[in-house]
Specification:
By secondary structure, the chain is an alpha/beta fold. It has eight helices and eleven strands. The chain has helices at 10-22, 33-42, 59-68, 84-92, 105-119, 152-163, 171-178, 189-201; strands at residues 2-6, 26-30, 47-51, 74-79, 97-100, 126-129, 132-135, 140-143, 146-147, 207-210, 214-217. Strand 8 and strand 9 (146-147) form a beta hairpin. Helix 2 (33-42) runs parallel beside helix 3. Pfam families: Response_reg, Trans_reg_C. The modification 4-aspartylphosphate is found at residue 51. This is Response regulator transcription factor. GO terms for molecular function: phosphorelay response regulator activity; transcription cis-regulatory region binding.
Length: 219
């Protein structure tokens, strides 16, 4: 899942980045509305965690532009104001969810994952293909009942492939969905991750490579 955190408190940003990446998400950050607008113009995000009270371009305006642009990105607003009127106003702008500061980190992760499942064509929280089962909420994957010890990136790649329901997924799409903006687009990280994932999935092979096209789950 690709997430953008928009928050002007640098110390809070670092905490959120560390925690969300540990939870298996690919996360970028913006320290203000202007930087958020720039990133949203060039990247597709599943979820934007958006502080409402930004010092340059207000979070309301960032949200409004995102919604009016027809993006499939879901918006989770953060604010220090927790009154009902503030929540109603934020949701009326098009935000999908609202969380008042201070918040429990586990709740933030749960809300982001719930929104992420709705960001693109909806996919079930449990993905199944033959004897391969992935519970995206519990972050557990098994094959033939055998637990798969996957890294965060391996889990993310497999989640995207299973969610594509047999369609081809390019390396560029995997980089966009599973890695963050700091990843070199010319790196072989997708190929290396795929090799390790295939090794852990075992035989018979689950992931097919289509030369010059990408990867797909074998049906």
């Amino acid at each position: 899942m690709r997430v953008l955190v928009v928050e002007d408190q640098a110390d809070l940003v670092e905490i959120l980045l560390e925690g969300l990446r540990a939870a298996g998400m690919a996360v970028d950050s913006a320290l203000g509305g202007v930087q958020a607008q720039e990133l949203l113009a060039v990247n597709d995000y599943d979820v934007v965690v958006l502080d409402r009270d930004l010092p340059d371009v207000h979070g309301d305006e960032v949200c409004r532009e995102l919604i009016e642009g027809g993006a499939l990105t879901r918006v989770l607003m953060l604010t220090a104001a927790g009154a009902v009127d503030d929540r109603v106003e934020g949701l009326s702008l098009g935000a999908d969810d609202y969380l008042a500061k201070p918040f429990d980190f586990a709740e933030l992760v749960a809300r982001i994952r719930a929104l992420g499942r709705r960001a693109r064509p909806p996919i079930p929280p449990v993905l199944v293909d033959g004897d391969l089962v992935m519970d995206t909420a519990r972050r557990v994957a098994t094959r033939g009942g055998r637990p798969l010890r996957l890294t965060a990136k391996e889990f993310g790649v497999l989640e995207v492939l299973l969610g594509a329901d047999g369609a081809v997924v390019t390396s560029e799409q995997l980089l966009e969905r599973v890695w963050d903006e700091h990843t070199d687009p010319f790196t072989n990280t997708v190929r290396v991750t795929m090799m390790r994932l295939r090794r852990k999935l075992g035989e018979p092979g689950v992931v097919a490579t289509l030369p010059s096209a990408g990867y797909r789950i074998v049906r």
